[in-house]
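We both want to read discrete structure tokens more fluently, so let's practise on a single case. Would you write everything just below, so we can both look at the same thing?
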Amino acid sequence: MSETAQAPAAKAPAPDSNRWKALSFIALAQLMVVLDATIVNIALPSAQQDLGISDGNRQWVITAYALAFGGLLLFGGRIADLWGRKRTFVTGLIGFAGASALGGAATNEAMLLGSRALQGAFGALLAPAALSLLAVMFTDSKERAKAFGIYGAIAGGGGAVGLILGGFLTEYLNWRWTFFVNIPFAAVAAAGAYFVIREPSGSRNRSPLDIPGVVLSTLGLVSLVYGFTRAESEGWGDTMTIGLFVASAVLLASFVFVESKVKAPLLPLRVITDRNRGGIYLSLGLAIIAMFGLFLFLTYYLQIVKGYSPVKTGFAFLPMIAGMITGSTQIGARLMTRVPARLLMGPGFLVAALGMLLLTQMEIGSSYATLFLPAMLLLGLGMGTAFMPAMSLATLGVEPRDSGVASAMVNTSQQVGGAIGTALLNTIAASATTSYLKDHIGGASNQAQQQLVQLQAQVHGYTNAIWFAVGILVAAAAIVFTLVTAKPSDVAPSAGSVDGAEDDVLVPVIAH
């Protein structure tokens, strides 16, 4: 049951004449952030060898970025409200460029991991600020839909594009350029934003900063992901591993308790307790857990097992990009105002799960054309179809004062899902690989047979982890069918309740 609450109407301010120019710079910054989440995947084997990073620690190159980004997004969104969106956006870009320069110049493992964490932290500043700027600059519903459609397409396809760009940079230059390439992106976006963006006055939220919430949420997420990572090398029964999971549960439970008591919470609980938003955040997080692990495994399989070059590996992911674009623009965008969101998101995740299921049949000699091509098309098509309505409904019925944090929660669920997915599925794959080697290496009588068994063990580990990813995507679909009840007619009202909407503007608020 829905009821509509209306604030007093007032004349809306004239739209910013530079809004479309601003969109180009905001989109460029978003592309840089999303690219960086995957561009390093292609370069990871080269960087690992060059800097002597162990197999157990290699996923921290991905995880350090995703965890810092996801753990600090809510804080970054709050800083943007408090400090000013344009200032936060430009500061985030400059910091991201500096962290990228540090990563490209890394001389050891610690320096590389530190730079990745810094990239994530500055990304957490600029990403929510970018979303907020779009919302306050595009006030017409049709223009806003177009602007967010462009932004969403970049968010969906940019990661896969990063795999291709990473391949070119790694093969024709070296892995360090997967970091250095961010510097011109950031410089152009920062300069453009400084001169073009005009942030509307009076749209800041000057409530006191929830420091306990920031500390508890960040530490809780760090403990959670580190627990998954440590389980790979030390085992699930290790005392330290168990302690990390317990600490994470205590910290996150304390975070929820604090948020329910403080006057100006970092994450108002009303944002996530709505069944539609809660279902979207949870299902997106699970889907990203499955996808991030898959990117890592396929990259290693194609380069190490199949002997693909970095560029060829990048192009091997093109069918997934094509599927995402098709699913997003031709299915999701066209049908989300006609079909209930759950009938797009749920089947979308199941189609992606079918693509993932095909990859469980992967062997050393598997054909790209008959196995990987259809699997990637299905993965992209399913994810593109599911993500489009999810992004549109992420702020469904949210109050204007909460819409910034509601938008940040979408990024948070994706980034934390990516961090957990990389750590969890890498742990499962490593454990299965070790068990296979233990059982089969004794039968290898010469070096050639031993190398064959080692490759077979790696593939066995990948397929075991992918089976878990299939189950995770099915669970995401089940959550959507259970929790997401939004109707097509709800899409139009939700467009009014976005970050930056003033209290004196007519804003529909849907209460479920």
About this structure: The chain has three domains: 17-149+156-199, 210-265, 270-489. The domain at 17-149+156-199 is CATH 1.20.1250.20 (Growth Hormone; Chain: A;). The first strand starts at residue 4 and ends at 5. Residues 1-11, 492-512 have pLDDT under 50 and may be disordered.
